[in-house]
Each structure stands twice: as structure tokens, then as C-alpha cells.
Amino acid sequence: FARYGDDWSEKIPFVARLTDDGWGVERIPGVGPVYNLAVSPDGERVVYAVGSNGPLLQVRYEEGTWSEPESLTAQYGVSGSYPALTDAGDLLVYKSDGSAGNGIYVARRRGEGLGTNAPLYVPDEGTTFDGVVSSVDEALLVTRCLDDVCDPGDLNGVWAVELGVPEGPTARKIAAPPYVWGVQPVEALRLLVFTDGEDILAVPLEAAGLSGRANEQQSVSR
User: Fold this and answer.
1) 81-114 as b/e, with b when 16 or more CB fall inside 10 Å?
2) Which residues contact 67 (CB under 8 A, 6 or more apart)?
3) Contact, 168 vs 122, CB < 8 A?
């Protein structure tokens, strides 16, 4: 996660680790300020964006030591913000200036490296960002804003997108939480973790409608 004071653009990255003694918080040395960041599923890498469209860099955590930052943009030509890493090693990002428009793009894992950005989910309207793959429902979770205000409401909020459907991607607004950022399903704890811009919060996966049951969710097609 990242913390900031009076200047939103000056965010500093931290990692919190849960042990038998509680949460231990550590600043990631040599990194920052960042725009936003993501931890890999195995906990061994942190990928972060420096600006709203990149560049993207990463650091590795090996034997209790953080590596020097390396540029994924320089090595593989990938760029964007709101990064997320999948179990397979693919990198999801938000691009406002992508080849297919404003939306979620993916750089597939290629051996130890990455391919180039390709469109994954680019809806026809609104702003869709903060994409992360949920292993709970095998869906892409995104934050969507479909007006100029972006207040919580019937449309603005967190959506689950089903990909690989013959007729094209379909999206449904999940039951909770409202319009937030950084949604991350944690199946081991049965929680959906997110931030409202001030605190790190969570709701049960079942309350978010991510237990495999669609509950009072509004569906729209692409």
C-alpha cells in the first residue's frame, strides 16, 4: 500500500506482513514516490507506476532484502498505471491512451519477461481502471465510473467482468463495496480488501457477492 500526506502525488510505498505477533509495517527502501503499486501473488515482487501512464518498475524481495528497482518499461515496452499481477505472471494495467481506448490492458508473461500491452477489457463508456483477476469467481474485478462525478451509486463502483464469453465480455456490479480503489480478493481470509482513499478496509467475500452467487447485481453488456 502507499501513504501520502498533503500532496497526493507524493505517495510512499509500504508492505505490511501478518505474523503471529500481529501486523508489521515496513517501508520499501529506495522506492518512491509512486503513483500506485501491486504485490505479486507469491509476495516476492512489487510492481509500481511512477506516473499516470508509467513508467512501470519493479523490485524483488529475496531472503529478506529488497533489490534495486528495474524498469519494465525499458525492458519490455509496457506502460500504464494501477498495475496488478496474476497467478500466471501476467501484468494488468490501466491505460488512458491505449491502442483500443481507455481501459484495462494485459502484458502476458513470456518466460521470465513480458509481452507488450494488449487490450483486455475496454468498455464503450466511462472510465474503467484498477483491474485485478479474482480467483474466487474467475472474473476481472474493476472500478468503474460512468459519469463526471464518480460518486457511489447504481453504476459507479466495483464491477466483475466475465471474459472469454462468445458474445463478448459482460459486466455486473457487485453488491459491495461502493466506489473505491485497489480491490483485492483474499480467498484465504474470505475478504475483499480495498481503500477508500484514507483507510484500508475489507468486507466478507459473500457480502460482496463473490462467493459464486449473484445477489442483487445489475448486469450490463459491453
Assistant:
1) bbbbbbeebbbbbbbeebeeebbbbbbeeeeeeb
2) 59, 60, 61
3) no
Is 130 within 8 Å of 183 (Cβ atoms)? yes
CA distance 72 to 32: 16
Pairwise CA distance, residues 222 & 219, whole Å: 10
| pLDDT for the residue 187 | 85
Give the pLDDT means over successive 10-residue stretches in the chain (222 positions). 87 91 94 92 92 90 94 96 93 93 95 93 93 81 92 91 84 89 89 91 90 41 32
pLDDT at 137: 64
The pTM assigned to this predicted structure is: 0.88
> Grid coordinates standing for 205?
467475500
Handedness of CA 30, 39, 79, 143 (dihedral sign): negative
Residue 173 neighbours by CB under 8 Å, 6+ apart = 144, 154, 155, 157, 158, 159, 217, 218
Rounded CA gap, 137 and 133, in Å? 9
Residue 3: enclosing H or E segment and its boundaries? strand 2-3
Q: What is the pLDDT of residue 51?
A: 85
Q: If you ran DSSP here, which 8-state letter would residue 68 be given?
A: P
